[in-house]
Description:
A hairpin with a 6-residue loop joins strand 3 (29-30) and strand 4 (37-38). The N and C termini lie far apart (53 Å). The chain has 3 helices and 4 strands. The chain is globular and about 50 Å long. The mean pLDDT is 83. It has a domain at 16-64. By secondary structure, it is α+β, with helices and mostly antiparallel strands.
Amino acid sequence: xxxxxxxxxxxxxxxxxxxxxxxxxxxxxxxxxxxxxxxxxxxxxxxxxxxxxxxxxxxxxxxxxxxxxxx
Length: 71
């Protein structure tokens, strides 16, 4: 019989531009400044930054530190 799952993981994945690991698209994202596709560690850094992302813009760890190649 079919089992109903509420929070199912996606089947879509890509590779992080910084470290090359494959990750689920729902956990990472794209930096608005440097336009790189990054995993959650390289995009957000900490849990607090991830929560700030939910309410605002998405800027990666390197761009926040001034090391990114963004605009």
